Amino acid sequence: NPRESIAYSQYPRPADYPQWNSDKPNLKDIRVMGYSIRTIDYRYTVWVSFNPHEFLANFSDVHAGELYFVDSDPLQDHNMYNDTRGGDLPKSWTP
Amino acid sequence: KDALNVLLIIVDDLRTSLGCYGDKLIRSPNIDQLASHSLLFQNAFAQQAVCAPSRVSFLTGRRPDTTRLYDFNSYWRVQAGNFSTIPQYFKENGYVTMSVGKVFHPGISSNHSDDSPYSWSVLPYHPSSEKYENTKTCRGPDGELHANLICPVDVADVPEGTLPDKQSTKKAIQLLEKMKTSTSPFFLAVGYHKPHIPFRYPKEFQKLYPLENITLAPDPQVPPGLPPVAYNPWMDIRQREDVEALNLSVPYGSIPVDFQKKIRQSYFASVSYMDTQVGHLLNALDDLQLTNSTIVAFTSDHGWALGEHGEWAKYSNFDVTTRVPLMFYVPGRTAPLPEAGEKLFRYIDPFDSISELMEPGRQVKDLVELVSLFPTLTGLAGLHVPPHCPRPSFHVDLCREGQSLLKYFQLHDLEEDLTLRG
């Protein structure tokens, strides 16, 4: 069932706002990690606190979120995350 | 003796801007021809949209949270665990493993050695002309040489009179010729540099993409609802002389429209140039009668934003930067074994306007991940597929975090498919 296929991606950031090293932060400067879960229907991303010394992401501390629906917004220009009030994290995301 | 060889082609920063992915503008006849004999995954995604972390992830079969490489500054065998790699596993199973061009990201993340001797039977090859890639070899409108982002060149004019990917193709063909008479199966990984920046390619390829035919990205503005943390401020291209001269404000200043079109034109021209290199390599596979005994896997380490969401380069979680081309040609599985003398991969000149449209091969829509490359390649080659990793798996040298994609290659489907097509 194509709906069961899932792809995970992630990207690190040094801060909540763009700065000179936002594209390629060194490990010691990473403070936020964006974890994406993709299905054939949507892409859901949470940007959460990240501790580079412990290599630990804190899913209870969500800095921002993104939610795009493939059918209605294939180019991912209309972030619905706040419209859904961020919603509860999908069960599969809670550590 | 009967083991299938493996040719793994990894293209740097290649998004799915290819004919076989439905992009009508792009001239990529040789990759499209490969796709017509392959199983093509329409929705394959990298686990992190930046070179070293993505490459170490798919070459070890572990996710970035396990390799603990999110930047360029650590070697997984030191930082995280002594994880086996795909080439290492083939080497341990009797294959001669060889690396040409950019397979591992050079530097600390591959121990300044492309992970030799673990991964490779012979010293990895790097094209000598690579050292000029970021130097002042781009002739600007002022007639001077610059280190530009947009860098169409007269190959005769550049140092050594050649380009890295041309040298890589030549070396890879030499290795194929040598392996033709070997009794051992081979695993050859060829890493092409283009379309990674700078867009330094033979200038004639620009003719394939007249500026009047080039449009902007369909959504060139930063979306109002995009959280600032998600935005990639494309700092790397800003450091190139021609972009720097635009005096753009950081982080949200947008590139002038005509220059956006020039960037897109040069990315596409780089793709077609790279396609010719892939074409020469696959044509040699045919000439050496290795097509019926060699699996060909084609992919990239991540995509590239060409102005979508007001962004350029990779460094984000958008689909345009994480979605990658992924296809496998498996002799007798994704295409019938070629008859004696039959050529599957005859070189096609992208300037040949009559090159007929390719019949697409089989395609899969399901979402898949680059981290599945390890179990899938080993399975297709008939090797024992490494077990799923426990959590955590830092202490386990050989296991994989990705699903095997073998189920998509089921023969009966193919036979059915072929009779239908027959």
Report on the structure:
The complex is a heterodimer of chains A (95) and B (422). Chain A has 95 residues and is mainly beta. Chain A has strands at residues 7-13, 32-38, 42-51, 56-69. Chain A has no helices and four strands. The radius of gyration of chain A is 14 Å and the shape is globular. Helices cover 27% and strands 15% of the residues of chain B. In chain B, helix 1 (29-36) packs across helix 9 (257-287) and helix 6 (164-180) packs parallel to helix 9. In chain B, strand 4 and strand 5 form a beta hairpin. Chain B contains twelve helices and 13 strands. In chain B, 55% of the residues are buried. Chain B is globular and about 55 Å long. Classes of the chains: A mainly beta (95), B alpha/beta (422).
**Into which percent range does the helicity of residues of chain B fall?**
25-40%
Tally the helices of chain A: what do you get? 0
Shape assignment of chain B: globular
Point out poorly predicted stretches of chain A. none
- What is the CA-based Rg of chain A, rounded? 14 Å
| Spatial ordering of strands, largest sheet of chain A | 1-2-3-4
Q: Report how far apart the termini of chain B are.
A: 32 Å
Shape of chain A: globular
Keywords, separated by commas or semicolons:
heterodimer; A: 95 residues; B: 422 residues; 13 strands; disordered C terminus
Would you summarize the structure shown here?
In chain A, 0% of the residues lie in helices and 40% in strands.
Q: Any chance you could write out the topology, listing elements then pairs?
A:
The complex is a heterodimer of chains A (95) and B (422).
Chain A: E1 7-13, E2 32-38, E3 42-51, E4 56-69
Antiparallel strand pairs in A: 1-2, 2-3, 3-4
Chain B: E1 5-11, H1 29-36, E2 39-45, H2 51-60, H3 64-67, H4 76-79, H5 86-92, E3 96-101, E4 138-139, E5 145-146, E6 150-153, H6 164-180, E7 186-192, E8 199-202, H7 235-238, H8 241-244, H9 257-287, E9 294-300, E10 305-306, E11 312-313, H10 319-322, E12 323-329, E13 362-369, H11 373-380, H12 411-421
Parallel strand pairs in B: 1-7, 1-9, 2-13, 3-7, 6-8
Antiparallel strand pairs in B: 2-12, 4-5, 9-12, 10-11
